Amino acid sequence: MTRWAVAVDKNTCIGSAVCVGTAPGRFALDERQRSGPVTAEIDPDEAVRDAAASCPVEAISLVDADTGEPVDLD
Ligand code: SF4
Using CA atoms, how far apart are residues 33 and 41, in angstroms rounded to an integer? Predict the structure, then answer.
């Protein structure tokens, strides 16, 4: 079964917390108000896809954990 690898570029993240609200339990802000995945590898989750598509600065990377291919965000 496909697994997704989730990552956040903390240098790009502006701490808007859109991802935290869009995919509850999947993202958390650190002490610098920068997001990161709660779990780096997950089963496909439409809320996480929505979060990646909704990030205002496109800081969230979502790829197939096996192939490294980007997950289609549409
Ligand atoms: S939505 Fe994007 S900018 Fe906002 S906290 Fe999440 S990763 Fe950071």
Answer: 22
